[in-house]
Specification:
Layout: E1 7-10, E2 28-29, E3 43-46, E4 49-52, E5 60-64, H1 115-118, H2 129-143, H3 153-174, H4 176-186, H5 201-216, H6 220-246, H7 250-277
Antiparallel strand pairs: 1-5, 2-5, 3-4
Helix pairs in contact: 2-3, 3-4, 4-7, 5-7, 6-7
Length: 278
């Protein structure tokens, strides 16, 4: 078994990811690493950057990320490689691998796989929600624990773990706020609970006024008006956050996501108040 302690980038549809700007000078390529899928690609070099030229099945290329500079969220996500099936020890040909293609056994969750990898979508703030929902239903149909009630305890355990992971990935990526917070988490940034560091005094006053108006709203119409204004603000924040993440401006994105948390709370309060009028 080959042990690889690096991260990998997997190009789909036989193409390596192509960044919109040149690779940073500090990006280094290791020519001597064998493909985890036991392929033997050849490599060529142009202006100091190496690319695979052989017939590597999944185009698995290993990079040293210790000195990499930011190249943007949309270009790639990373995941560690699980090499072999636990049952038949054949190479796992898909990443992430839910089932072994040789023996059809359900596999344990791939260590280090991101939610974006699991849901087969770009590592980006703007997602195709219909595609996300379709992927979720597809995975739950094949991984649901009920399908493994007559299988071995190990298979039942793996199906439960995989199904729970898919649920978590879907819930996280479905909403802009949780999706953005997760993207920051992947970069080592977290927003502490109750923080107001990214909210200026003017915005704090605006939030207080909105909350007071919502508490005093006498009719469903007035409550709904506040809700519509809040949706407009959230839509504007969504565009700003998307732009910040695309540019790699993580601190700006963090500040905007903090604001989004407050307006999302107001949106929830609007829904609660409207339900009382029913």
């Amino acid at each position: 078994m080959i042990r690889v302690n690096l991260l990998c980038v997997v190009g789909r549809n036989r193409t390596l990811f192509q960044p919109s700007r040149p690779f940073p000078r500090k990006l280094r390529f290791f020519k001597g690493v064998t493909c985890a899928l036991q392929c033997k690609p050849n490599y060529s070099s142009k202006k100091g950057t190496s690319f695979p030229t052989g017939n590597c099945h999944q185009r698995v290329v290993f990079w040293d990320f210790r000195n990499i500079e930011d190249v943007g969220f949309r270009h790639f996500c990373t995941a560690q490689v699980n090499l072999n099936c636990w049952n038949c020890e054949q190479p796992l040909m898909q990443k992430p691998a839910f089932f072994c293609m040789s023996c059809q056994m359900v596999q344990p969750p791939s260590e280090g796989t991101t939610y974006f990898n699991i849901m087969d979508c770009d590592c980006a703030f703007t997602l195709d929600i219909q595609k996300l929902q379709k992927r979720y239903l597809q995975l739950q149909r094949i991984l649901h624990p009920d399908n493994f009630s007559q299988k071995s305890l190990r298979e039942q355990e793996y199906s439960e773990s995989q199904s729970a992971l898919v649920n978590s990935a879907y819930r996280t990526l479905l909403k802009p706020l949780s999706r953005g917070l997760y993207m920051l988490e992947l970069q080592g940034l977290n927003i502490e609970e109750g923080t107001v560091s990214a909210v200026n005094s003017e915005l704090l006053m605006e939030l207080m006024e909105i909350n007071e108006a919502l508490d005093a709203a006498p009719t469903p119409q007035e409550t709904n008006r506040i809700g519509q204004d809040t949706k407009g603000k959230l839509a504007d924040l969504t565009q700003q956050i998307d732009s910040a993440l695309n540019k790699g401006e993580l601190q700006t994105a963090k500040a905007l996501l903090t604001q989004m948390k407050y307006f999302t709370n107001i949106e929830e309060k609007v829904k609660e108040k409207l339900s009382r009028f029913m």
